């Protein structure tokens, strides 16, 4: 697909990506709003590869969805500062027209700023953002491919308080580029010099599945090196195939943002097993997958909890926070999954809950497991 074809009609995957970013923007801005009201009274949304704003069939893309959500909220529309950049001047002109045509556009106190910068060859934006302390900012990076995406770009916005990032990670093309010596510079920008060189060596003899895991793990490590403590990925397979096309990557320094995005990605996943979301969009997936006989995802969580906390007493909230937060191997488990695992362990007699299930109310057919419910793990 050429760049000119891309904006004719959105794929279902493209529509979902825009929906995920817009949903998180709405949640993130709610989280930071109390602090913003007490301090600068401003927060920002930056889209580095914004596109024309709408597809030729009229479908709205991320910039329009974000601004429409803002306009509906009287406080937010007085505080949002937005910057939209695209290297294509025609896209910038169309985006301006699309945005200024939004109903009640004039209610925005700060009118959007539009830029036409080729990020791959012009470091003006990176230099500018690195030198200043930003107001709380959500940034979205969705390049056509991977050129223009770099750790430096992510860091320059993520470095300040309240700032989170979402970016498109084109696994299919990056996987090929790692084996191409002519693409070394781009890979160094994305993974860091030393890690990029080590990664090329590590993946040479790996199977496709092992290779993908190593590449993704190294990306997470690179993001943590620049302060991205919490990382979640959402997978998009190639249409009609098992192989991965790309990931949507979320990175944050704050627990609340991490928890919020995890819930958004879980409920927008195509499938789940034992109530654990797949964290991927795959139109061919069945809504209910057959459960494995042993070691399904919830079974694995139960075993991990028994091993981690044997002989200890903690509240449900302490268990979730200590076991999940910032741990990449538990990134697909939501708080609800932890509650389900603890219910199962209680029913099996492997933990003691205080108050016990007989004294806790039920909701939606399940006995509740409140954040302050005390849990004692028995010793084997």
Descriptive overview:
With 380 residues, this protein is an alpha/beta fold. The protein has 2 domains: 3-253, Vaccinia Virus protein VP39 (Rossmann fold), CATH 3.40.50; 297-377, Arc Repressor Mutant, subunit A (Orthogonal Bundle), CATH 1.10.10. The chain has 14 helices and 14 strands. The chain has a 7-stranded mixed β-sheet with strand order 3-2-1-4-5-7-6, sandwiched between helices. α2 (12-38) runs antiparallel to α11 (255-267) and α8 (184-191) packs across α9 (193-202). The longest helix has 27 residues, at 12-38. It is globular, with a radius of gyration of 22 Å. 36% of the residues are buried.
CATH topology (fold) name of the largest domain: Rossmann fold
Mean pLDDT: 91
What general form does the structure show?
Answer: globular
From N to C, what is the helix and strand string?
A: HHEHEHEHEHEHHHHEEHEEHEHHEEEE
Structural class of the helix and strand makeup? alpha/beta
Strand order of the largest sheet: 3-2-1-4-5-7-6
Looking at how many chains there are and whether they match, the oligomeric state comes to single chain
Which percent bin holds the helix content?
Answer: 40-55%
Could you give the distance between the termini?
57 Å
Question: Stretches where pLDDT falls below 50 for ≥5 residues?
Answer: 286-292
Q: Please state the second-level CATH architecture of the largest domain.
A: 3-Layer(aba) Sandwich
Residue fraction in strands: 15-25%
Number of domains: 2
| CATH class category label of the largest domain | Alpha Beta
Counted by DSSP, the helix tally is 14
Tell me about the biggest sheet? 7 strands, mixed
Radius of gyration: 22 Å
CATH superfamily of the largest domain: Vaccinia Virus protein VP39
Strand tally is 14
């Amino acid at each position: 697909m050429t760049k000119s074809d891309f904006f004719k009609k959105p794929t279902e995957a493209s529509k979902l990506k825009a929906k995920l970013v817009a949903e998180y923007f709405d949640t993130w801005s709610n989280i930071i709003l109390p602090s913003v009201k007490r301090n600068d009274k401003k927060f920002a949304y930056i889209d580095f590869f914004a596109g024309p704003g709408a597809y030729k069939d009229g479908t709205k893309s991320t910039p329009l969805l974000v601004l429409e959500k803002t306009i509906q909220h009287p406080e937010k529309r007085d505080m949002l500062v937005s910057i939209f950049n695209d290297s294509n001047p025609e896209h910038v002109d169309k985006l301006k027209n699309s945005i200024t045509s939004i109903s009640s556009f004039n209610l925005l106190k700060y009118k959007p700023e539009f830029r036409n910068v080729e990020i791959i060859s012009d470091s003006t934006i990176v230099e500018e953002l690195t030198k200043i302390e930003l107001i709380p900012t959500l940034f979205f990076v969705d390049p056509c491919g991977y050129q223009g995406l770099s750790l430096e770009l992510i860091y320059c916005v993520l470095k300040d308080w309240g700032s989170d990032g979402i970016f498109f990670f084109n696994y299919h093309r990056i996987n090929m580029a790692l084996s191409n010596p002519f693409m070394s510079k781009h890979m160094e920008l994305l993974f860091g010099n030393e890690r990029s060189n080590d990664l090329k060596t590590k993946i040479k003899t790996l199977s496709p599945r092992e290779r993908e895991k190593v590449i993704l793990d190294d990306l997470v490590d690179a993001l943590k090196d620049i302060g991205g403590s919490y990382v979640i990925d959402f997978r998009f397979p190639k249409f009609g195939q098992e192989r991965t096309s790309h990931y949507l990557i979320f990175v944050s320094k704050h627990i609340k943002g991490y928890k919020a995005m995890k819930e958004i990605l879980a409920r927008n996943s195509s499938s789940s097993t034992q109530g654990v979301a797949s964290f991927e969009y795959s139109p061919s997936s069945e809504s209910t997958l057959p459960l494995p006989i042993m070691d399904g995802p919830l079974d694995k969580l139960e075993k991990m909890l028994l091993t981690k906390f044997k002989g200890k007493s903690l509240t449900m909230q302490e268990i979730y926070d200590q076991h999940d937060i910032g741990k990449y191997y538990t990134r697909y488990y939501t708080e609800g999954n932890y509650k389900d695992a603890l219910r199962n362990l209680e029913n099996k007699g492997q933990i003691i809950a205080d108050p016990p299930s007989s004294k806790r109310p039920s909701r939606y057919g399940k006995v509740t497991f409140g954040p302050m419910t005390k849990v004692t793990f028995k010793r084997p």
